[in-house]
């Protein structure tokens, strides 16, 4: 029978405190690489981690509109979208927070990325497209991909759906006539727990056929 | 099939009443109970309420795209996670990192973190399970709340623990709770009769089958958002499978009268059995909102979801079964340990579906210092099915009998057996069993890549009961609305509500708006045990039927005709000539007819009608796998499911559910397992990098077949398709290469170990020192 007391030193009880310091330095280094922090500032930060809180003013181009945000340097693009935009852009979902499920997939200059793995600051000067920005106008026309998702019942609970829509859209924008294997590969960074995959593949193939038959551009 | 059935109603039915059996899942344990209901069939109503024959429906029983699809594909669908309110604080929980520990916390450093508004203890008691929440932080941003949690200073006094089956059963085991680590709570059958029958059998197999703890892994974590800023009203948004399972408890937690709180479940990101009631997160959020008088957003982090939000219990089950030469299953004994952590765990009972002459079962809960199990899609059945189907396969190979034939031979007699038999035949046909060369012995060739086929079957109760209130409204502008407080887990509940009303009114699906997911829309049952459709659909149908009757009554006066002459189809109201030739054969558009309504429109309510629901499902599945005997790679290349569910209200969504069940079974079979370090007492994979669920690359060709021969009323289909898939896969692996994997997940390392043992043991004798051979 394991007895944890024999294995753990008392000093480990303080680890939360040291972790806080550590996380402060990490957060700081994220912005320092972009914004050329003062020399020697790292030492002061270690002594007084509280000073790290504060915000950076960022201008992001999201769905064709410029948004000015005031966020902490460590804020991910996903949290910026969901918690710091007004109105909030909650289409991209926070699920794993570690870049392993794809529910937060957005496009950065047209390429699919995990919004939870980027700092908001990393998106400055680039074009961010979220699922809300795919269809034209206010609640406007669905894209070919979105229509196909609806027709083939490619969403069940729907929590993974925005991420899959973004991955499939990017895949078909690159190659409208993508094969099943190419679609699986393009979506292999996305997870669905309800198990909609068979209908999702049908939707993607169908959208691809429609887009391949028409324009070779993104299917908007 | 198992001892949980109470075969007879408790007493004779009263006048105009009858008894029906209904399914119930409480805390992961499925049971059935008898409920006395009105006998509508006997009542002799003038207009008997019934589902139209299958071929005559113009909306129902067809492929219907779900009505909230456009919201889901555009990001407009708002989940609890997405609720944003002015002044809202984000709350986080501090989890105890030990299986069981006494602790002291210094909350002051957390209170000093910028943005943190509140830090409090959740419990002061010694913790009972690994990851138990012990403190909560509320802050202006999620990041600040995380900082606050990290800033709490903690001193733990870890206690001796038991986190595995072996540790829990050890002689000097650390006690889990006060009532002992083992609770033997079910014994049935006659062990002596089994033993003497086994002595007469031509083949006897004794084997232990193990299933790991599986997580629900809902993409939206558990949690609530409480909209309360002081005053006498509150709204609670919840990610739940039961609007009213939350609604019934939150007013008390907020210190408000029941009527002052509205519970909202517009969209929810997966539940699978694990999301009922406010839960700890709901309690903490309500208390924070009540005390701080500000909205609280408390959704579990992914780690907390893995550690504290329930699971499918693990299982260690030892079976001893015997069969006669002809494949007749003569006797079965089973000893089952359910590993539900601090919960009881669940098991579907043995024998599972198949019917040996005599049987014996002893089932025990074995407790560990881990999170309690909860209901999880067909609680207990996937565990029981895996052992039963594996054992049956082992007996078939021992006797050299066709794997399909031994199943059909041992089905229960009568109508149910005939259904499974027919379904198995169809599965076999679709998976290519006839052409498969290895029907009663594994592929013994030296080919490196081998193909195998396996089978499994399932049963579930489903069905419904009188638990839903539904209102249907017709407005003067022609708008039709159906209201119920029920929730849509992704199963398509919202769509079936609209579809039933559209069918009744002769309208298109788009013409009806289903408003669900709000407690003020009327009582509804929680979505557990595949009972949503069979409880809700009859009430929707009844409400629509009553609304139509009231509408015709009104129209008869307004349009100068008789209500018996009126009909509605294709968006029109028709006046039919009656037998006397009276009636002008006039027709009005739906809008024209509705324009005659008073400004308030028209409304009718409905209730559950027993003749519109049935119960009891049958299903069969087949899996085809390829096994690479050099690398150990296992690929499922095809899964087939033939499933009955009574009337499939929406065939497209029903196939989605069947596919989803197969995908989850595949995922469970090949990938999923909570991994705990037994020495450190730590869960090693409480995240989506290390806890694997099936992704695109694992998905084989899938064939989902709704059993066309089933002409019963609505039953439900959520649970059954998840039951037999992983067993079928394990059987297919053995069929391909002769390795019997008795422990899930079915991974390459186990397969390779098995291949080595096979080669050394049965095919080439003991391994030679020079390693000759391959």
Secondary-structure-derived class of chain B:
alpha+beta
The named CATH superfamily of the domain at 80-159 and 222-299 in chain B: Aldehyde oxidase/xanthine dehydrogenase, a/b hammerhead
- Number of spatially distinct domains of chain A: 3
Number of strands of chain A: 5
CATH architecture label name of the largest domain in chain A:
Roll
Task: Write up this protein.
The complex is a heterodimer of chains A (220) and B (774). Chain A is of the alpha+beta class. Chain A folds into 3 domains: 14-49; 54-133, Ubiquitin-like (UB roll) (Roll), CATH 3.10.20.30; 144-213, DNA polymerase, domain 1 (Orthogonal Bundle), CATH 1.10.150.120. Chain A contains 7 helices and 5 strands, in the order H-H-E-E-H-E-E-E-H-H-H-H. Chain A has helices at residues 15-35, 41-47, 77-84, 144-151, 161-174, 180-186, 197-213, and strands at residues 56-62, 65-71, 105-108, 111-114, 127-129. Chain A has a 5-stranded mixed β-sheet, with helices on both faces. In chain A, helix 1 packs antiparallel against helix 2 and helix 4 (144-151) packs across helix 7 (197-213). Chain A is globular. Residues 4-51 and 215-220 of chain A have low confidence and may be disordered. Chain B is of the alpha+beta class and 774 residues long. Among the domains of chain B are: 80-159 and 222-299, Aldehyde oxidase/xanthine dehydrogenase, a/b hammerhead (Aldehyde Oxidoreductase, domain 3); 464-611, Aldehyde Oxidoreductase, domain 4 (2-Layer Sandwich), CATH 3.30.365.10. In chain B, the strands form 8 sheets. In chain B, strands 5-6-3-13-10-11-12 form a 7-stranded mixed β-sheet, with helices on both faces. In chain B, helix 11 packs parallel to helix 18 and helix 14 runs parallel beside helix 15. Chain B is globular and about 90 Å long. The model of chain B is unreliable at 1-5, 42-46 and 763-774 (pLDDT under 50). Chains A and B meet through helix 1, helix 3, helix 4, helix 5 and helix 6 of A and helix 2, helix 4, strand 7 and helix 17 of B.
């Amino acid at each position: 029978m394991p007895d944890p007391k024999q294995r753990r030193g008392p000093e480990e009880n303080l680890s939360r405190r040291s972790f806080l310091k550590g996380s402060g330095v990490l957060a700081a280094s994220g912005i320092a690489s972009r914004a050329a922090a003062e020399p020697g500032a790292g030492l002061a930060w270690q002594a007084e981690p509280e000073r790290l809180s504060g915000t950076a003013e960022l201008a992001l181009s999201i769905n064709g509109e410029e948004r000015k945000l005031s966020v902490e340097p460590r804020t991910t693009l996903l949290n910026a979208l969901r918690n710091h935009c007004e109105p909030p852009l909650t289409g991209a979902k926070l699920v794993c927070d570690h870049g392993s499920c794809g529910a937060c997939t957005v496009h950065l200059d047209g390429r699919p990325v995990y919004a939870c793995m980027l700092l908001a600051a990393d998106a400055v000067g680039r074009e961010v497209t979220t699922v809300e920005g795919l269809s034209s106008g206010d609640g406007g026309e669905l894209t070919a991909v979105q229509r196909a998702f609806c027709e083939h019942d490619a969403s069940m609970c729907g929590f993974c759906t925005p991420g899959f829509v973004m991955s499939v859209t990017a895949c078909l924008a690159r190659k409208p006539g993508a094969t099943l294997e190419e679609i699986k590969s393009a979506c292999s960074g996305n997870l669905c727990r309800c198990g909609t995959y068979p209908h999702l593949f049908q939707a993607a193939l169908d959208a691809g056929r429609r887009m391949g038959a028409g324009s070779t551009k993104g299917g908007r | 099939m198992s001892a949980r059935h109470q075969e007879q109603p408790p007493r004779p039915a009263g006048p105009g009443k009858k008894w029906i059996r209904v399914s119930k899942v409480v805390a992961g344990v499925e049971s059935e109970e008898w409920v006395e209901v009105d006998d509508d069939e006997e009542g002799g109503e003038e207009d008997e309420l019934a589902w139209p024959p299958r071929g005559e429906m113009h909306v129902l029983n067809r492929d219907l795209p779900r009505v909230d699809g456009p919201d889901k594909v555009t990001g407009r669908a708002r989940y609890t996670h997405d609720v944003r309110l002015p002044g809202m604080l984000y709350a986080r929980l501090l989890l105890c990192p030990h299986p069981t520990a006494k602790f002291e916390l210094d909350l002051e450093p957390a209170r000093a973190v910028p943005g943190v508004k509140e830090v409090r203890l959740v419990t002061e008691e010694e913790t009972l399970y690994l990851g138990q929440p012990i403190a909560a932080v509320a802050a202006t941003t999620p990041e600040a709340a995380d900082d606050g949690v990290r800033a709490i200073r903690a001193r733990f006094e870890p206690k001796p623990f038991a986190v595995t089956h072996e540790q829990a059963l050890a002689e000097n085991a650390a006690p889990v709770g006060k009532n002992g680590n083992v609770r033997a709570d079910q014994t049935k059958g006659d062990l002596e009769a089994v033993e003497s029958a086994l002595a007469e059998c031509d083949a006897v197999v004794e084997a232990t089958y193990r299933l790991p703890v599986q997580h629900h892994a809902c993409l939206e974590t558990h949690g609530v958002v409480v909209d309360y800023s002081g005053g006498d009203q509150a709204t609670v948004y919840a990610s739940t499978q039961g609007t009213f399972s939350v609604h019934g408890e939150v007013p008390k937690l907020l210190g408000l009268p029941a009527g002052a709180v509205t519970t909202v479940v517009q969209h929810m990101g997966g539940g699978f059995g694990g999301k009922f009631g406010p839960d700890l997160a709901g309690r903490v959020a309500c208390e924070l909102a009540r005390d701080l008088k500000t909205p609280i957003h408390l959704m579990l982090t992914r780690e907390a979801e893995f550690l504290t939000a329930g699971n499918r219990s693990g299982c260690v089950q030892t079976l001893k079964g015997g069969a006669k030469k002809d494949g007749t299953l003569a006797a079965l004994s089973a000893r089952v340990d359910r590993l539900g952590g601090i919960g009881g765990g669940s098991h579907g009972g043995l024998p599972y579906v198949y019917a040996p002459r005599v049987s014996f079962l002893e089932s025990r809960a074995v407790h560990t210092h881990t999170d309690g199990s909860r209901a999880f899609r067909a609680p207990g059945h996937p565990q029981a099915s895996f052992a039963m189907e594996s054992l049956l396969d082992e007996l078939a190979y021992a006797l050299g009998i066709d794997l399909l034939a031994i199943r059909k031979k041992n089905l229960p007699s009568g109508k149910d057996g005939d259904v499974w038999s027919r379904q198995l035949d169809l599965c076999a046909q679709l998976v290519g069993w006839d052409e498969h060369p290895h029907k009663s012995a594994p592929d013994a060739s030296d080919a490196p890549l081998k193909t195998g086929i396996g089978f499994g079957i399932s049963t579930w109760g489903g069905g419904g009961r009188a638990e839903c209130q539904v209102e249907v409204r017709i407005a003067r502008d022609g708008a039709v609305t159906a209201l119920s407080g029920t929730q849509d887990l992704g199963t398509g509940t919202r769509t079936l509500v609209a579809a039933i009303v559209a069918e009744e009114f002769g309208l298109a699906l788009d013409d009806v708006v289903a408003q669900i997911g709000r407690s003020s829309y009327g009582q509804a049952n929680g979505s557990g045990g595949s009972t949503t459709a069979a409880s809700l659909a009859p009430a929707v149908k009844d409400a629509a039927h009553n609304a139509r009757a009231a509408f015709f009554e009104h129209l008869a006066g307004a349009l100068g005709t008789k209500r018996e002459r009126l009909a509605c189809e294709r968006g029109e109201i028709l006046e039919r000539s009656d037998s006397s030739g009276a009636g002008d054969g006039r027709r009005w558009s739906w809008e024209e007819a509705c324009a005659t309504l008073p400004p308030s429109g028209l409304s009718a309510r409905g209730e559950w009608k027993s003749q519109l629901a049935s119960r009891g499902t049958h299903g069969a599945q087949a899996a085809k796998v390829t096994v690479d005997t050099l690398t150990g790679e296992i690929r499922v290349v095809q899964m087939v499911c033939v499933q009955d569910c009574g009337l499939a209200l929406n065939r497209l969504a029903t196939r989605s559910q069947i596919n989803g069940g197969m995908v989850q079974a595949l995922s469970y079979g090949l990938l999923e397992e909570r991994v705990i370090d037994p020495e450190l007492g730590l869960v090693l994979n409480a995240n989506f990098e290390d806890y694997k669920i099936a992704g695109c690359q694992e998905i084989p060709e899938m064939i989902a077949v709704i059993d066309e021969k089933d002409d019963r009323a609505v039953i439900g289909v959520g649970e059954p398709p998840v039951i037999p898939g992983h067993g079928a896969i394990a059987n297919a692996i053995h069929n391909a290469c002769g390795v019997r994997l008795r422990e899930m997940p079915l991974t390459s390392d186990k397969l390779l170990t098995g291949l080595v043992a096979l080669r050394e043991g049965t095919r080439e004798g003991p391994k030679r020192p020079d390693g000759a051979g391959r």
